[in-house]
Amino acid sequence: MSSPSAGRRAPEADRSPGGAGGLLRTLALTLASALVWGVAHLAAGRRLAGGLLLGLWVVVAATVLVTVTVYRSSLVHLAVRPDELQGLAGGIIVLGVVWVAVVIRSYLVLRPVRQSISARTVGAAAVAVMCFAVAVPVAWGAHSTYVYRDALTSIFRTGSQNGRHIDTSDPWDGQPRVNVLLLGGDAAADRTGVRTDSMTLASVDTKTGDTVLLSLPRNLERFQMPPGPARDRFPYGFTGDGPENPGLLNEVYEYAENHPDVVPGVPKNRRGPELLKATIAGILGLRVDYYILVDMFGFADIVDAMGGVKIKVTQPIPYGLEGQVLQPGYRTLKGKEALWYGRSRTDSDDYVRMGRQKCLMRAIAQQADPQTVLTSFDKLAAAAKRTLSTDLPQELLPALIKLSGKVKDGAQINSLQFVPPLINSGNPDFALIRRLAAKAVSPEQAHATTSPNPSASPSPSGSSSLAANGSATAAPSPGASPGDSPSPSSSPSAESKPTSLAATCPS
């Protein structure tokens, strides 16, 4: 009489016999199981475990597929939420651990019983390679998510900014346009403080993405300061801080940082942006919602991280201290070369340089494709942390990314530069500047754009009245009055109309 267990074989007896054929079959099924979980277990007759693994794999694969297709737009919201990013990084790590465990276990359930030492060594090495192939992309994904989250939280603050609460259901709060001040600073190891040599207000239509870039020269003078301590100190216009600072627009940022009393209650590194936003709001007669400051020397790191930027140089541009020259033609500029291209004044002036800077920004935006970002992610994130500062809140980022997609997908981008002969930088016609700015952003509502803001408090002597959010009314400033007639050199003409940035940049 046979034993009840005589009809059952030990698990080892079910495995393939030793030898090269058995090892190759085991490794092939292990590889198949690494691609589709459960294949090895099903081949070994372990239907329950194999079915569970296969079902889990189907759920994970279906979730990923549906997310990147049906719910692709929701990924934008995930990409700018630090808490979700932290959870995503943890989920990636858990997935990687489970995946490696599946690979190892798949090999163990199929491993031949009788193997030579060399066969065991080959098998273990092959499984190690498979685990490594799984672990590397998983580790890269988790690391990149962490790096991205760290850069996100370092650059963008949470909570309401500028006294506003961000309603995620209506992030623009009914605003037809959002105005972001783009600043280029020149901080460096051999210079004290920050001078904003590049100042452009980007006014973006929140529905279409159509954008107008309003640029002010660094050497603009005789502008009025916003109401409050700054106006009290400079009642007749900004005059600077000593003979080395004659009162140019690019000095306002650093002046505020060095004189806390002109922006009371505002912490260091935010005093400069707040005073400059309010000042430019008064000059243009437009509200300034947010700012982004790019350190021009750190900007070179971003270009290097991208692998350079391709641009058409239209005339020889000297750069460096050893007589190098950027020759005309299509060039792929490295970081320092791009910096000199945007900043060089040799054989040109501030206004020509402003035009080159805009073309450089446009080229970088166009060439920052997903492949470039992915392959240089760590370098770009590190450079961004060193280079960028802003008061854009994290809560606004999903809407801003969606809006930037419209800008990149064919929205009209026009540029208006307040430079000679349109504007005399030393004695500007501020009434003309405000009229042209209003017409540029909203031709059909130019008057409404510069009408008094209900939230702005009255100001003595009819000067620009600024609200806390940077909005402004159009009012007399030094160098101009409501009754002034534009001088011949600054009369509205074809030059005063916004021009397409694509048309003005060589291609």
From TrEMBL:
A Pfam family annotated for this UniProt entry: LytR_cpsA_psr
InterPro entries cross-referenced by the UniProt entry: LytR/CpsA/Psr_CW_biosynth (IPR050922), LytR_CpsA_psr (IPR004474)
Coiled coil: none
Keywords from the named record: Membrane, Transmembrane, Transmembrane helix
Residue stretches of biased makeup (Low complexity): 448-500
Residues in Cell envelope-related transcriptional attenuator domain copies: 195-368
Disordered as annotated region, ranges: 443-507
Signal peptide start-end: none
TM ranges: 20-40, 52-71, 91-110, 122-142
Family classification: Belongs to the LytR/CpsA/Psr (LCP) family.
NCBIfam families recorded: lytR_cpsA_psr (TIGR00350)
The protein's name: Cell envelope-related transcriptional attenuator domain-containing protein
Organism: Actinomadura napierensis
